[in-house]
Design goal:
Blueprint: E1 2-9, H1 13-20, H2 26-29, E2 33-38, E3 49-56, E4 59-71, E5 75-83, E6 85-95, E7 100-110, H3 115-166
Antiparallel strand pairs: 1-7, 2-3, 3-4, 4-5, 5-6, 6-7
Length: about 170
Amino acid sequence: MRVTAQIDIAAPPARVWAFLSDPGKQLHFMAGITRWEVAGDIERGVGARYRMLMRVGSAEVGSLIEVVESTENRDMAWVSVTGLDQRGRWRLRERASGSRTHVEFRLSYGVAGAGIFGFLAERVAVPQVQRHLNRSLQQLKRQVEHEQLRDDAATRRAAREARAAVA
């Protein structure tokens, strides 16, 4: 099964990438994810491995995944090494002179070798997985835009203080 979600975020790609590429922030915005742990010597980028679990219904399903593609501020893709067969991709594209980012989250998964029961399990899981992806993007947007607003306010405050010091 393949599930896709997308959203526009009012922040530059570098700020969005900082959240997506930080394994310590995954549980803060990824809906349905119950575990996201570094599982190797490499923490970020190509070759990084993570143990991840997602709640689907009453079950936690997941995999050991490995990042196979990482282009800073643009793309990150992974594949499963063990566990549930999955492939995922984050795509970031700059919009409106760098002040906005279009984010796309793709996830493909399957239950290998389970026949008709695996096919049915995949189909039943689609609506919940889709909700997890949509909610993850909404939470990512909220957190990144909040951080962007705080930084913008701090910049304005510093400029006002600098003007007041000169006057």
